[in-house]
Specification:
Blueprint: H1 10-16, H2 36-47, H3 57-65, H4 80-90, H5 106-121, H6 125-138, H7 141-154, H8 166-169, H9 177-188, E1 193-196, H10 211-214, H11 217-229, H12 245-266, H13 315-331, E2 333-335, E3 341-343, H14 349-358, H15 366-369, H16 372-381, H17 407-426, H18 432-435, E4 440-448, E5 452-461, E6 477-486, E7 490-497, E8 503-513, H19 524-527, E9 532-541, E10 544-551, E11 558-559, H20 565-574, E12 588-589, E13 602-612, H21 613-616, H22 631-634, H23 659-663, E14 667-681
The structure holds copper (II) ion (CU).
Protein name: Tyrosinase copper-binding domain-containing protein
Keywords: Signal
GO molecular function: oxidoreductase activity
Amino acid sequence: MKVFVLCTLLAATVAAWPSFDFGGFDGFQSDPSVSLTQRQKHVNKLLWKVYDHLKDTELKGIADSFNPESNTSQYSDRGAAARALAKELKENRLLKQHHWFSLFNPRQREEALMLFSVLMTCRSWNCFVNNAAYWREHMNEGEFVYALYTAVIHSELGEGVVLPPLYEVTPHLFTNSEVIQKAYTAKMIHTPGTFQMHFTGTKKNKEQRVAYFGEDIGMNTHHVTWHMDYPFWWEDSYGYHLDRKGELFFWVHHQLTVRFDAERLSNWLDPVDELHWDNPITEGFAPHTSYKYGGEFPSRPDNIHFQDVDGVARVRDMLIIENRIRDAIAHGYIERDDGTHIDIMNDRGIDKLGDVLEASAYTPNSHYYSALHNLAHVMLGRQGDPHGKYGMPPGVMEHFETATRDPSFFRLHKYLDNIFKEHKDSLPPYTREDLEFTGVALESIGIDGQLKTFFEDYEFDLRNAVDSAEGMEDVEINARISRLNHEPFSFVADVTNNNRGSVLATFRIYMCPRRDNNGVVFTFDEGHWMCIEMDKFWKKLSPGKNHVVRKSVDSSVTVPDVPHFQTLIDAANRGNFDMSEFTRSCGIPDRMLLPKGKKNGMEFALVIAVTDAKYDATQSNPEADEHGGSHAHCGQHGEIYPDKSPMGFPIDRRIPDRRIYDEIPNIKMEIVKVFHDDRHHH
Ligand SMILES: [Cu+2]
């Protein structure tokens, strides 16, 4: 077995990777010879039972006969990426199959990205599927799945393809060992079964009250997909620039953090405390989750002190990195590696800071600022075996699929979020002029319908969790989980437009918990940082009165349930595949748009701000275009972010004086209550 050495600075390895010429993408066009139905069929087959050898005759035939190096004209880089990967295979350097894979392991990531590069340089779908089938048989399964998902997302050849939900492709990372064990037994005795998945922990652990959030398969899919849409290793040479990636990193994690805190408040828990390198990690974690190959995820007891992790970082390093970033915020500039400065005392500062904190390959100075977030994930993942004495595999924190299960994820992100807050707090508060929308006034805002949450059952397919045996048919095996949902509702607003003509308005809707866990009402200056983004959209306002109704299901924060893998297979087999509304799975699950309420109602401040789209919208016709459905946290695929204003506007900066917000007619606040129905819906 190979031994992997982690570099101290993860980000530094990013810059050192070989770069290929991706040919600027001009020559890329959807391959007209291969229909979307056919491409979807291929992707389905490539991802079915990834831990088994290919059974499908077409793909197996390809895998047996295809030579990735033979026809170099099929690649935009004349086969350089394909040759590089083939060389690794020939020289026997590739990670074996049936071994765990972690993106945070530099060598494993390098291998996965070598395949990603091959797929990205393919000029035709044939090249893409031939390589995918070939490498599926020759590379580690985890690396293969990661490369295929990211390539389908980022290559034009993948357009229209719906990637199956990861929890039905690699179920081990989304359910627990108990359920997996039952699945194996069901398979062995050839008896169909549906197994209830319980949330990790026991009633003795109060963190279990909110485990439904961190272990929600839809929320996990959102998180892991966001990191595929905006990979930290992304370089523009792959084909395009990921607009406002650093700011999105801040915003998507900020929203996860504030949503988690709201769920805690609804369960009579205090908001999460931030992690600190000098303090013990209060919450331990027993994941009850195992790798398909590689054993159990390691546990961590309560209240352990951080230890240096061999080959990753010392605890001191983390403090030093943190201080350098805090210095940048205090100075108001980031220092590039050539010593020049990037001013961050403006709307764009948060984007730069996000690149630095994660760090992504966009960071201007990885030598100095390192990679606080990425290193912290690995540091936390290794605290159970910091010196590798017990040969434990990576912890749940080292996978985006599983990280939110561990309460320390939210501690870590609260800590990072507070660093971002320090920056936002250093900017001057918005003035009346920044917020005004001449002639436009919100007369009333409210909710149509009832804000009501409940838990319901949901089942997903576990067939891919178990191996197939020759001549033995699959039986139906499902996991049943309990998940949060809400009744549909609408936001309503009566808006007067006193301008002579119609105006295009940007609507921003937030819901902010009103009271802390002791019932004390938050001040504006405290509460604004806890606001949950509910929606953002554009609407033309006619002169006079306008009655605006916006359905919860249309929110630009959310996505619908990803269709089941079997649904995708059936749809592709029927022909004329078109499920374009499901092509993106980045976004808060629709059913979790509304934070959980309380039986007698939990108070939120509903905030609606209507501002002038003349200053906000980057697109000419934002009202007609839904920008891919979930643009608020996930941007618009391959294009610039549709909104020019900072994410979180107009409540992202401190509010020392709430009077402007009270007086200005185009921002309005109303107290609403979210109720929780205790009866479980089946
Ligand atoms: Cu994340």
